[in-house]
Write a structure and sequence with these properties.
With about 120 residues, this protein is mainly β. The chain has a single domain (about 10-115), classed as At1g16640 B3 domain, CATH 2.40.330. The chain has one helix at about 85-95; strands spanning about 10-20, 25-35, 50-55, 60-65, 75, 100-105, 110-115. The protein has a 7-stranded mixed barrel. β3 and β4 form a beta hairpin.
Length: about 120
């Protein structure tokens, strides 16, 4: 089992998960952030969900960060850019896949920086 890494703000650890699949059998992916990192996130004092900028590689997308009081995570999921981009495609384009990733949070700008682990 891989050891978890602890980061200090503005860096957070997140997990790219597969909650399902699209009709074309492509994985539907989400980026999930554990409650322990919520102090770093921009939505702590705002309504849910909130609009953010998601940076993957050199590309910037509009997205939404979601939160439910009963859920131990916050999550970012497709669609991106108002519905014309899928998170799974843009993560793959940036070289990212399921597993743990390092994010940088700067206000409402969330950057996917590094793949920490990969899941099969």
């Amino acid at each position: 089992m891989n050891k978890r890494v602890s980061f200090e703000p503005p860096f957070v650890e997140a997990t790219v998960t597969r909650p399902g699949e699209y009709a074309d059998k492509t994985d539907r992916l989400e980026i999930r952030i554990l409650r322990g990192y919520f102090e770093t996130l921009p939505y702590v004092k705002e309504d849910y969900p909130i609009d953010i900028q998601l940076v993957i590689g050199h590309n910037v997308y509009s997205g939404r960060l979601n939160f439910a009081p009963s859920d131990p995570t916050a999550w970012l999921s497709a669609p991106l850019n108002g519905g014309c981009k899928r998170l799974v495609d843009e993560l793959a384009l940036g070289g990212f896949r399921r597993g743990r990733v390092k994010l940088k949070v700067e206000g409402k700008r969330v950057s996917v920086l590094e793949q920490l682990t990969c899941d099969s």
